[in-house]
Specification:
Shape: globular
Number of strands: 14
Helix content: 10-25%
Largest sheet: 7 strands, mixed
Strand content: 25-35%
Number of helices: 5
Strand order of the largest sheet: 1-2-5-9-8-7-6
Structural class: alpha+beta
Length: 292
Amino acid sequence: MTPRDASESPNGSPDNRWSDLGRPPLSTTALRRGLIREGGLWRRVDVVQRTGSTNTDLVARAAREDLAEGTVLVAEEQTAARGRLDRQWSAPPRSGLFFSVLLRPAEVPVRRWGWLPLLTGVAVATGLSRVAGVDTALKWPNDLLVTVGDEERKAGGILAERAGDDGIVVGVGVNVSLRAEELPVPRAGSLALAGAVNTDRDPLLRGVLRSLEDWYGRWREAGGDPSVSGLQETYAAGSATLGRMVRAELPGDRSLVGEAVAVDGDGRLVLATGAGVQEPVGAGDIVHLRPA
């Protein structure tokens, strides 16, 4: 069964999703026409009006259906979206990009799959720069930052989850048209607040997914090698974390303070500590301690 176009009501007629003309609904038909092509990565694009989490839904679907790589699930509204460490966040309907994709990188060793959130960050930043004219910096491992005034703010995030033995679902959430009074926390941001020249979600989503297709293809062709694919260098160039003093909140209630000096071949953040030791961090919450 093909999900109904999110711009239609249950009986197929337009409904009050058009009530906010500044935030028009996405069209499943238009997105499929613009993204699905012979030989391309994207095989199926579904838009739903409302769900708890596109990641949760797509992981569940992948477990019970034989979903092809390149399945994309987009939501107009998420009510139980999750970030790292199971943090929850929400946003008004049609105010952002909320989507997940199913990838099956069979040619890439599983030990290199940790690069997928970083790859997605590079792809999202590239796509948003091209379409919205907004520079998006990357906070390791999965936050998207924009500048509002002279302040660095989080405008989005990325979450990757395994889907069976051979798949991974990568979810993306980006605040697009949120106004200051709608921000979930004062230090959050959006593309609109960062001065975006375009906040139309249709071309934004197309631009991000085309960029993701491009970067994923390069990475997969290189067998997941971040250096050969150019991913490691590009990520470092767009990083808001490298060169800063940070505190890594690690599993087991441990923390580590040091200068973020590199992202290694496995996608780990390397910290140079006061003891003169370089320590790689593969998982944890990173707090920036000084301005860039």
